[in-house]
Write a structure and sequence with these properties.
It is built from 8 helices and 7 strands, in the order H-H-H-E-H-E-H-E-H-E-H-E-H-E-E. By secondary structure, it is α/β, with parallel strands linked by helices.
């Protein structure tokens, strides 16, 4: 019995070594490749969403940011619930960005960009309703307080080809609101994975209808 157990143990050793080597190789490639090239180490050190050249990035999953980067263009208007480095990132790619923010520090940083209008609203109702004062938008990014209320207000202000972006779409507030979006004709394109600064994985989702401005 002992000999049989020993032989079985020895047979399993190469498999364990192979799995360990594969894990080590994957970790090596991740550290040397994706995380380094994306600027994750810089973002983690600075506690800000930046790329490897310290340029601002949205605090979305890298996959979603890359997807948007290939499709945004200078004819689009963007509204953001929640300002920050994402505001600066959008401003370099679209015609106009309007953002509402509760935090005074982030509002002051983003407001200096020429094609950005930054509004500070501390009360949740005024925060969600701010979008109704600025016309129609091609993309609305939901990444702040009372996100279901923001999403419902956004539905009234989207162009017919408009797209909703919902960050942290894995959270309960999003999952509870998804049936309403589906009923309004939207489909969900989820991007799950890593993002700047932190070690956790999240989901950033795009909600779109056929014939949308991003060509999804």
């Amino acid at each position: 019995m002992a000999a049989t157990t020993t032989r079985a143990h020895l047979r399993s050793v190469p498999g364990r070594i192979a799995r360990t080597c594969k894990l080590g190789a994957a970790l090596h490639l991740l550290l040397r490749g994706g995380l380094r090239e994306s600027g994750w180490f810089e973002s983690h050190r600075l506690r800000r969403a930046v790329d490897a050249e310290l340029r601002p990035l949205p605090w979305y999953t890298y996959a979603c940011t890359s997807f948007l980067d290939e499709r945004l263009h200078s004819g689009l208007r963007v509204f953001e619930f929640g300002a920050g480095n994402s505001t600066l990132w959008y401003a370099a790619r679209v015609r106009e960005v309007i953002a509402v923010e509760q935090d005074r520090r982030w509002a002051a940083e983003a407001a200096a960009t020429p094609n950005v209008t930054l509004v500070q609203r501390r009360d949740p109702q005024g925060y969600a309703n701010e979008i109704r004062l600025h016309g129609f938008f091609h993309l609305v990014a939901i990444d702040g307080v009372d996100r279901p209320a923001c999403a419902r207000a956004a539905l009234e202000t989207l162009h017919p080809d408009g797209v909703l972006l919902w960050d942290n779409a894995e959270r309960d507030d999003c999952r509870r609101t998804v049936p309403e979006l589906f009923e309004a004709g939207f489909r969900e394109l989820p991007f799950e994975g890593p993002l700047p600064i932190v070690t956790e994985f999240i989901r950033t989702s795009l909600f779109y209808r056929p014939g949308n401005c991003l060509g999804i």
